[in-house]
Each structure stands twice: as C-alpha cells, then as structure tokens.
Amino acid sequence: MNVEQQDSLLIRAEQAYRDVIADPRRGWPTAEDVAGQARAARSAEALSVALRAAGWAARELYDHDAAQRHLDEAVRVARRAHLDDRLCEALITRSAMHLELGLAGRAQPDLQTPTDRATSR
C-alpha cells in the first residue's frame, strides 16, 4: 500500500472516531469496517485509531466485552508499532472505560507514563 492510500485510510479512521463521538450507534459499523480495511492493508496507525473508535462506540452502547476487545487490540497494535501518541490515546480511552465500570485498579496502570512503569518494576 502506498503512502497516499495509507493517509487516506488514516483519515477515514479518524473520521470514524469523530462519527462515533457524534452517534455511536451509527458510527460503530463504520469504525469496524475501517478497522477491517486497515488490518488487511497492514496499516497499524489506521487500525489503532479505528479500533479505538469501535471500542468507544461499544462502550457507549454498553457492550463492554466488545469495548474491551477493541481497546485491548488498539493498545497492542499501537505499542507494537511504536506509535506513542496513538498508544496514549488508546490507553486513556481504555482507562476511562475501566473507571466507568468501577475497575480503578485496571485503569491505573493505563494512566502511568512509560517512565513510571519502568521505575516501578
């Protein structure tokens, strides 16, 4: 996939996130579709963004199992690809979901900086 196609896919993933914020029920299928396309294209950044969008939509619609799956994958993808900004976005989103579910112990590690994690080991 060339740079132009990668950029287009990332733009679509970012739009999917904005769509999910505006209307989670309508935006969720688009986010999952873009995630599938990003996965097929091996575009880590677009995949992380689209999975974060799908996770947030699932969370908004009380499908916490799907939200957890999407957000866990968004974190793994961003971490593996060394996409620090996208990793932070996914971690913050996942921590918000955990806090809303009353799982502060699961949210706290997501909110620590990488430096904090390294010194706490």
Walk me through what this model shows:
It contains seven helices and no strands. With 121 residues, the chain is an all-alpha fold. α5 (84-100) runs antiparallel to α6 (104-111). The chain is globular and about 45 Å long.
Topology of this protein?
Layout: H1 3-22, H2 24-41, H3 44-60, H4 64-80, H5 84-100, H6 104-111, H7 114-120
Describe the structure concisely.
This protein has helices spanning 3-22, 24-41, 44-60, 64-80, 84-100, 104-111, 114-120. The chain is mainly alpha-helical. The radius of gyration is 14 Å and the shape is globular.
Helix and strand run: HHHHHHH
- In round numbers, the mean pLDDT is 91
Question: In percent, how much strand structure appears in the residues?
Answer: under 5%
Q: Number of DSSP helices?
A: 7
Task: Output the structural class.
Answer: mainly alpha
Quick one: biggest sheet?
A: none
Total number of strands: 0
Helix proportion: over 70%
- Low-pLDDT residue spans: 117-121
Shape: globular
For the record, give the distance between the C-alpha atoms at the N and C termini, rounded to a whole number. 40 Å
* Cα-based radius of gyration, to the nearest Å: 14 Å
